[in-house]
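User: Batch of two.

Assistant: Item 1 of 2:
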Amino acid sequence: MQIPVINRSRHALPEYQTAHAAGLDVRANLAAPVTLGPLQRALIPTGLFLEIPVGYEMQVRPRSGLAYKHGIGLVNSPGTIDADYRGELQVLLVNLSDQAFVVQDGERIAQLVVARHEVVAWQPVEALSETGRGAGGYGSTGSA
């Protein structure tokens, strides 16, 4: 799949780190480091502008290494870049640890996964089909 991209950053385009990786690592594009204190969040620019094909979304997901080693995640995970969005890709990081974390220019901050999606057409009905779970809510499948 080819995706049109404008790269206004000082860094290479997002890339796969291994032959079978699903996510492309995207880098911070910063004029100066950004410090995230405990429980702080910041919108980190990437310098990338994308044209996602209609029928697809680009999912922005956390990097497991940042999450495990430093408690850094994404507030809206996964984030979605829609096919009609043309602004800069920015990543909303959050520091869930008790230590400050410094985001450096060029640091790999998230991964991008392309996913096909369907467009929903609602079908109003008076009743839904029966299932074993029924109306059981959160945690209902593990209780006896």
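Item 2 of 2:
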Amino acid sequence: MATKKVALACSVCGSRNYTITANPSRTKRLEVNKFCKHCGQYTLHQETK
């Protein structure tokens, strides 16, 4: 059985830079400060569905 993946999208430019494994016990969307290679700075990345 394959693991389900979700993407982390930059809140500034909207590019989906990172993928993580989905956690069904997480009720809210994950928000993490990550480096966006398109913006060139650390921005807030949010989990997409």
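The beta strands are 5-10, 16-21, 31-36, 41-47.
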